[in-house]
Amino acid sequence: MQMPRFIEAPLLQRYRVMFNFDLATHRGKPQQGNVEIKYRDLRYELLASATPTKWGDKLTIRILDQNDAMCGLKKLGFTPEVQAGIEELAQRRSGLLLFAGPSRSGRSTTQYSLLNKLNSIEQNILTIEPSNSYVMPGMSQVELRCAPGLSYNSVWQAAQDVDILHIDRVMNSETAELAMSAAERGVLTLAAVDAPNAVSGLVRMVE
Predict the structure, then answer these.
(1) Does position 69 have pLDDT exceeding 70, yes or no?
(2) Distance CA 207, CA 202 (A)
(3) What mean pLDDT value characterizes the chain?
(4) Domains of the chain, with CATH numbers?
(5) Looking at 49-58, 129-138, 180-189, 196-205, which range is the least confident one?
(6) Which residues pair with 188 in a beta bridge?
(7) From CA 43, how far away is CA 125, in angstroms rounded?
(8) What is the DSSP string of the chain?
């Protein structure tokens, strides 16, 4: 669908407000935001990212079905053997569960489906993400974009008695070291890595 050029500015401004962008410093600054909507009794999370380009902001909106994370691993297409293996590993009290795959392959949905299964009043679950992919009651979910100066390490250092840690995606040495350190300290750690397969995921961690 092609829209008239004159509605571009007011439409982008409406989206900036809707996704809680920083209106004072939005020019020339990449930003991310999210908002939850309800449609026909189903919940959806809209994840937005704005990238400054030569011709103005490019806005991308990703639609996540919040019900996907509630459906369980069985409905995500895993074979019974693979599902049983993942669930057995998730019962351990420490270690690193690394989910490898390309972008949009379902890494976040798989992790949150597993977190939903593990979620209970006895478990202290902490998630650290630039922007929360899914909203889960009963977990401590931190969005790094919500406050200046927040980082993976600063949130982790302030956390206490965490049983399960989810750090979204291993993207640099900071997140890789945090994932390994938490796993070695007796915390079950879930993380994802951009890689085409499991072997490449281990190579990325080493690099």
Answers:
(1) no
(2) 9
(3) 83
(4) 5-65 (3.30.450.90), 68-206 (3.40.50.300)
(5) 196-205
(6) 95, 164
(7) 22
(8) ----GGGHHHHHHHHHHHTT--SSS-TT--EEEEEEEEETTEEEEEEEEEEEETTEEEEEEEEEETTGGGS-GGGGT--HHHHHHHHHHHTSSSEEEEEEE-TTSSHHHHHHHHHHHH--TT--EEEEESS-SS--TTSEEEEGGGSTT--HHHHHHH--S-SEEEEEEE-SHHHHHHHHHHHHTT-EEEEEEE-SSHHHHHHHHH-
The pTM assigned to this predicted structure is 0.72
Which tokens sit at 93? Answer: 């009290």
β-strands 140-143, 188-194 pairing? unpaired
What single-letter amino acid sits at 146? C
Has residue 187 got a pLDDT over 80?
yes
Q: How far is CA 196 from CA 77, 112, 203, 206, in A?
A: 18, 20, 11, 16
Placement of tokens 């092609």 in the chain: 2
